[in-house]
């Protein structure tokens, strides 16, 4: 089932100087995926988020979120979404007071609010004024307010922007945990592609308000011959690695836990699968799965295509 | 019905939260001014109070529209997105601000005018306390209603313009115009016409323009002179314009407010 559907959506800002933020944009986001909304600055990512939230009304076209129009059925749509804006502006109150209010509005028990405060690691700062929080903790607060009320869809607009590497990693780990534990649909708009590629399995690329590509990361990887990573679970990682490295299309191998992380150009996917399932190696191979793709490379190719 | 109750509950929750954040100090000032009105009206006649009422009433309009100012900031700066993301609708958000900036303070001022009379000297309600006054109860109630309607109407109009233009300046401008400039401009216009033609009473009807915006002023102008209007008649125009403004505010919030 598709959670978000944009059907020829156009959004125009301004009267004298017209800016087309979205131009006949059509895409779909299926449920239970982590989707990356990619594109350069000013491409229409934040506008798309605001349209999904029902903050803006499209000039033409149709938007459906959970099967409803978010501008009209704003209440029933938004209560199922957690939203972290790109530049959230918070009131000057304590973390606890703010989150308690959000919880009350969502009809959520105070114990649930406390649980989320622990989940995002804000326990120590609970009674601090929001004004005094560092950027990393402000992002955690943003995630906390987005998570209150058990959302089915999480919209994260640049969740790791302007963060130091450690905070960035912590936020990313948190998103990974959310994907793993809650199994909710997450849409992330970001520029930090190496990080996104660790979690995303669906991509929408947008440029100047036009949707250039939308689809499963694996499908786009094959379409644009992008370098990609496969994880092969094996009973003998070293032996398998010494054999696979002989193949000239293999760009890298890393032994990780009980398996191998193999980097190849997606054009050679069949060759890799053939060799892994051959009688010589199949005895060592327990499982093969696509892990991720070089999103930077995909981004570059999509940018050129647009 | 359940959905309706849930919505009202959310509006009240949000209002309570906004009140705790934004407006406590201004509320205290408004209530003090209300009590001053009340005390003044216990010991003075309404006719004596009218000029003071005009000045204080005008300042109260500005005070209340200042309470509504942060709503425009929230819309422009993006706080609103966090609140709407909790499932609050645009209409509920604006309604909660309207309650905080208009309904609660007007109610507080109304009660601040009426209640001290009962507390300080209930017997004064039924006796003539100055050669100028009538009995205090009807005078006090008329005065309290008039100033409350004046505030409701003028602040609602300021609120409406501020919301539509997404500009605090527009809200303050409209409120200032209605509270201070309009009476002044009309008086000047009538004076000039009177001087030019030597016929003042003929232009008295121009003051009818003030009816929706300043019932206190209207009491002064239309309780004697060439045009006489009853107290009830004077109260109707501000009620109508307030309801009309409120409908426009809620309609704009529901159908046109983009954030």
Can you offer a commentary on this structure?
The complex is a heterodimer of chains A (306) and B (259). Chain A is an alpha/beta fold. Helix content of chain A is 34%, strand content 30%. Chain A has a 6-stranded mixed β-sheet, with helices on both faces. By secondary structure, chain B is mostly helical. Chain B has one domain (2-255). Chain B has 8 helices and no strands. Chain B has helices at residues 2-43, 46-77, 79-84, 90-120, 136-165, 168-197, 215-222, 231-255. In chain B, helix 2 (46-77) packs antiparallel against helix 6 (168-197). Chain A binds chain B through residues 50, 53-57, 74-75, 78-79, 81-83, 85, 87-93, 101-102, 104-106, 145-146, 148-149, and chain B through 7, 10, 13-14, 17, 21, 77-79, 81-90, 258-259.
Q: Specify the number of helices of chain B.
A: 8
Q: What's the main sheet of chain A like?
A: 6 strands, mixed
Which structural category do the helix and sheet elements of chain A fall into? alpha/beta
Order of helices and strands of chain A: EEEHEHEHHHEHEHEEHEHEEHEH
Apparent shape of chain B: globular
CATH top level class name of the largest domain in chain A: Alpha Beta
Reading the helices and strands of chain B in chain order gives HHHHHHHH
Largest interface: A-B, 30 and 21 residues
Extended strand count of chain B: 0
**So what's the overall shape of chain A?**
globular
Topology:
The complex is a heterodimer of chains A (306) and B (259).
Chain A (H helix, E strand, L loop, with lengths): L1 E12 L5 E12 L3 E5 L6 H9 L6 E6 L8 H5 L2 E4 L10 H12 L3 H10 L15 H13 L5 E5 L7 H18 L2 E5 L3 H4 L5 E6 L2 E7 H7 L3 E8 L2 H8 L5 E7 L2 E7 L3 H8 L8 E9 L1 H11 L1
Parallel strand pairs in A: 3-7, 3-8, 5-6, 6-7
Antiparallel strand pairs in A: 1-2, 1-4, 8-9, 10-12, 10-13, 11-12
Helix pairs in contact in A: 3-4
Chain B lengths: L1 H42 L2 H32 L1 H6 L5 H31 L15 H30 L2 H30 L17 H8 L8 H25 L4
């Amino acid at each position: 089932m598709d959670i978000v559907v944009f059907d020829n959506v156009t959004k125009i800002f301004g009267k004298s100087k017209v800016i087309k933020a979205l131009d006949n944009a059509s895409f779909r986001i299926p449920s239970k995926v982590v989707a990356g909304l990619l594109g350069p600055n000013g491409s229409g990512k934040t506008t798309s988020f605001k349209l999904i939230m029902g903050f803006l009304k499209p000039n033409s076209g149709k938007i459906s979120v959970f099967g409803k129009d978010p501008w009209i059925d704003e209440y029933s749509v938004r209560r199922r979404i957690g939203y972290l804006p790109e530049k959230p502006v918070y009131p000057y109150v304590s973390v606890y007071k703010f989150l308690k209010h959000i919880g009350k509005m969502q009809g959520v028990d105070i114990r649930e609010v406390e649980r989320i405060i622990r989940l995002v690691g804000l326990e120590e700062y609970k009674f601090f004024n929001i004004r005094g929080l560092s950027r990393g903790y402000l992002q955690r607060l943003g995630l906390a307010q987005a998570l209150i009320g058990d959302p089915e869809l999480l919209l994260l607009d640049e969740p790791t922007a302007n963060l130091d590497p450690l905070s960035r990693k912590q936020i990313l780990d948190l998103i990974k945990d959310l994907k793993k534990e809650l199994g909710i649909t997450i849409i992330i708009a970001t520029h930090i592609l190496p990080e996104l590629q660790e979690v995303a399995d669906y991509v929408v690329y947008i440029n100047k308000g036009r949707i250039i590509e939308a689809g499963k990361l694996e499908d786009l990887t094959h379409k644009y011959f992008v370098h990609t990573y496969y994880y092969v679970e094996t009973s003998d990682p070293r032996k398998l690695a010494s054999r696979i490295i002989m193949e000239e299309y293999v760009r890298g191998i890393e032994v990780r836990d009980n398996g191998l992380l193999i980097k190849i150009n997606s054009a050679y996917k069949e060759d890799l699968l053939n060799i892994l399932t051959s009688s010589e190696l199949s005895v060592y191979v327990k499982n093969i799965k696509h892990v991720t793709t070089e999103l930077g490379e995909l981004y570059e190719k999509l940018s050129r295509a647009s | 019905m359940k959905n309706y109750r849930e919505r009202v509950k959310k509006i009240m929750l949000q209002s309570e939260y906004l009140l705790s954040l934004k407006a406590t100090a201004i509320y205290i000032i408004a209530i003090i001014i209300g009590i001053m009105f009340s005390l003044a009206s216990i010991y003075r006649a309404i006719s004596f109070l009218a000029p003071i009422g005009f000045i204080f009433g005008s300042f109260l309009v500005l005070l209340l529209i200042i309470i509504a100012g942060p709503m425009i900031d929230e819309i422009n700066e993006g706080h609103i997105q966090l609140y709407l993301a909790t499932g609050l609708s645009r209409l509920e958000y604006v309604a909660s601000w309207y309650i905080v900036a208009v309904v609660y303070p007007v109610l507080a001022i109304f009660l601040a005018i009426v209640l001290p009379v009962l507390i300080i000297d209930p017997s004064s309600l039924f006796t003539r306390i100055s050669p100028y006054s009538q009995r205090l109860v009807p005078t006090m109630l008329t005065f309290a209603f008039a100033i409350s309607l004046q505030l409701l109407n003028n602040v609602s109009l300021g609120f409406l313009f501020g919301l539509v233009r997404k500009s605090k300046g527009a809200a303050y401008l409209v409120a200032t115009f209605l509270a201070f400039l309009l009476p002044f401009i009309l008086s000047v216009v009538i004076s000039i016409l009177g001087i030019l033609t030597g016929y003042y009473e003929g232009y008295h009807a121009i003051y009818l323009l003030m009816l929706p915006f300043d019932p206190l002023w209207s009491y002064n102008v239309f309780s004697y002179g060439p045009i006489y209007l009853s107290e009830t008649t004077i109260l109707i125009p501000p009620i109508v314009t307030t309801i009309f403004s409120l409908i426009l505010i809620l309609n704009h919030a529901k159908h046109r407010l983009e954030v």
